[in-house]
Specification:
The complex is a heterodimer.
Chain A (H helix, E strand, L loop, with lengths): L2 H22 L19 H18 L4 H19 L4 H24 L6 E3 L9 H13 L7 H25 L10 H21 L3 H8 L7 H24 L6 H9 L5 H8 L4
Helix pairs in contact in A: 1-3, 2-7, 3-4, 4-6, 5-6, 5-9, 6-7, 7-9, 8-9
Chain B lengths: L4 E3 L8 H15 L7 E2 L2 H8 L3 H13 L3 E3 L5 E3 L8 H21 L4 H14 L1
Antiparallel strand pairs in B: 2-4, 3-4
Helix pairs in contact in B: 1-3, 2-3
Classes of the chains: A mainly alpha, B mainly alpha.
Chain lengths: 280, 127
């Protein structure tokens, strides 16, 4: 089988599988509850409070399922274009990358415009990811520019690089986003917010380093030394960022957090308002 | 430090910056916030509350001017080492002023001091 046929078959299969996955799980951009399945809490009452906090969070965020279906549709279109057209596969891959970046952007805007009553925690929030992972994504994206010397894939390389840089920007915005606490059970909501922040930052960061590696792998990385170095760099950044994401995900609330949960109880609305309107 | 939470209700008559000031002062007086505890940045607190940064900046400025917090540039904003809450005389004075203001406002509405005291005893007995 020639390399061109292999590329066509590979990308078509990839687009179809990706589209099927998103069509079956359109809530992947809006997941809340599935991200807490690994969390262990010591008793049923605390588990119920955690579940309630997740539901309030999901309701407050309001991210549409249509995002997942829209990207699935684009993936299926790319599959058809990949199979039937003679255009290099990288162009359809770049199209999907741009679509994914745009979907992340729309999901992020939904989060920023959540309008539920807001409560703030009076402590400085630490960065949910170190700066080097963001720089790694940008550097990896810029390394694709070496493929601009091949005219057939210059545009697609540029689109993938730009979409990855935009995704790095979104990952940083997700990592530093304001907390979304409704105040009904603030200590538990804080745990939910911090866990979601870390997981979602990691998920978006994944899409800042994988597309470049996939692109470079199918764009003649072995044709010259510069391309090989760029491909190696994208692989190294993917591994480094993946290791960071895997080792930084928290599992369950700490003993201190559990003790804090036990000391508090879900607040009623009247209690929150009385705190806010206490006379001088 | 156990997390301390602050809320702003935009439907109330009290301005958001005033609500922020009152709550932070209350947390310090009750000991929920201790000396040298770090407070969030203006930007973080404004983002979390959904208010303008100037609102939080004004609250922090007034709290700093009255000695409750200190802003130390890169070290950030912290609860002051010595706050008005740690001064017993100032605390008594603040209580006296608050009660006087409270009784005065109710007197303007026709309530006598005896009625107010009786109601306070009744509420205290219920809680």
């Amino acid at each position: 089988m020639s390399m061109q046929l292999f590329d066509r078959d590979f990308f078509t299969g990839f687009f179809v599988l990706f589209g099927v996955y998103l069509a079956a799980r359109p809530a992947c951009f809006a997941q809340v509850c599935p991200l807490f399945r690994a969390v262990i809490v010591p008793d049923q009452a605390l588990a119920e409070r955690l579940r309630s906090a997740q539901m309030r969070r999901k309701d407050a965020e309001g991210i549409s399922l249509q995002l997942g279906w829209a990207v699935a549709l684009v993936a299926f279109v790319c599959a058809g274009l990949s199979w039937f057209s003679n255009v290099p596969q990288q162009l359809w891959y770049a199209l999907l990358c741009v679509c994914m970046a745009g979907s992340f952007g729309i999901a992020y805007l939904s989060l920023r415009s959540a309008t539920k009553r807001r409560t703030a925690v009076l402590q400085q929030r630490s960065a949910s990811a170190p700066m080097w992972v963001f720089f790694a994504g940008v550097a990896s994206a810029l390394s694709l520019l070496v493929y601009a010397d091949t005219i057939q894939i210059a545009f697609s390389a540029g689109f993938v690089a730009l979409s990855c840089i935009f995704t790095v920007f979104l990952a940083w915005r997700v990592a530093t986003m304001p907390a979304l606490l409704t105040g009904d059970d603030s200590v538990v909501e804080l745990f939910v917010d911090e866990r979601l922040r870390r997981i979602r930052t990691g998920a978006v960061l994944t899409f800042t380093v994988i597309p470049q590696y996939v692109y470079a792998s199918f764009s003649g990385w072995q044709t010259n030394e510069i391309h090989t170095i760029a491909w190696g760099f994208t692989l190294a950044t993917w591994i480094a960022v993946s290791v960071y994401i895997f080792t930084s995900q928290r599992r369950s609330p700490s003993a201190t957090e559990i003790a804090s949960w036990r000391r508090t109880s879900p607040k009623r609305d009247s209690e929150m308002l009385s705190v806010a309107s206490s006379p001088s | 430090m156990n997390p301390v939470f602050l809320a702003v209700d935009l439907t109330l008559d009290a301005a958001p910056y005033a609500q922020i000031i009152e709550q932070i002062r209350g947390f310090i007086e009750r000991g929920d916030l201790k000396s040298d505890d770090t407070l969030p940045t203006v930007r973080q607190l404004a983002g979390d509350l959904g208010v303008a940064p100037n609102t939080v900046a004004r609250a922090y400025t007034e709290l700093a001017e009255s000695g409750w917090i200190t802003s130390e540039g890169r070290r950030g904003t912290r609860v002051a080492s010595q706050t008005p809450a740690t001064d017993r005389r100032a605390r008594s004075r603040a209580l006296h002023e608050a009660v006087s203001h409270f009784l005065s406002s109710l007197a303007h509405r026709g309530y006598s001091a005896d009625e107010v005291v009786a109601e306070l005893r009744r509420v205290k007995g219920l809680s």
